[in-house]
Write a structure and sequence with these properties.
180 residues, mainly beta, two-stranded antiparallel ribbon, 2 helices, 12% helix, elongated, disordered N terminus
């Protein structure tokens, strides 16, 4: 299956069938990268069904992919698998309301011609499952605030600061709240 057609669902509006199974197992993710260094890697899987009701087609599927992203503490690249349940109703483009011209709406998509391209919806659902602050390991020690050394590799020689003026206002306020 070519990467160009991997996320295209055949159109079955004129057929007698009311539902079809949908399975895509793509060797290449063929999705635009996400924000903050998130990259979709292989493999990408889509498994579910497409249901027809007149001109409208509902796609319900489980989507999953491997992603590479930097750890939020130490900035080392890490890999993770993300998965989501996708439910999108697609209607013909000529049925799009004027007030939605050029706008996107979650759970609603439009198609032209005989093809529904679900790539952008798959991407959106997967991006929602990526942690806001990914951490490579629960014991990750992060970076030294003074020299920037990765504390997971070796401890740095920077001395901890006891100087009250070097502490952030938030840290001082938290200390004050929890000392009472």
């Amino acid at each position: 299956m070519s990467s160009d057609s991997a996320f295209r669902v055949g159109f079955f509006r004129d057929s007698e069938r009311q539902a079809i199974a949908l399975t895509i197992d793509a060797a290449e993710a063929d999705l635009d990268d996400g924000p903050d260094g998130v990259r979709f890697t292989t493999p990408l899987k889509v498994a579910g069904h497409a249901y027809r009701d007149g001109d409208e087609i509902m796609i319900s599927a489980r989507v999953s992919a491997e992603v590479a992203m930097p750890c939020g503490r130490c900035l080392v690249d890490m890999a993770d698998t993300v998965a989501a349940d996708m439910h999108v109703m697609y209607a013909p483009e000529d049925q799009r309301p004027d007030y939605l011209e050029g706008e996107e709406e979650v759970g609603l998509g439009y198609y032209e011609g005989g093809i529904i391209d679900i790539r952008e919806d798959v991407r959106r659902y997967l991006l929602l499952e990526i942690p806001v602050w990914p951490v490579c390991d629960g014991d990750c020690r992060g970076l030294c605030a003074t020299c920037g050394a990765n504390l997971n590799d070796d401890p740095c020689d920077c001395a901890p600061s006891d100087d009250e003026s070097a502490r952030t206002p938030l840290a001082r306020e938290l200390d004050r709240l929890f000392d009472n």
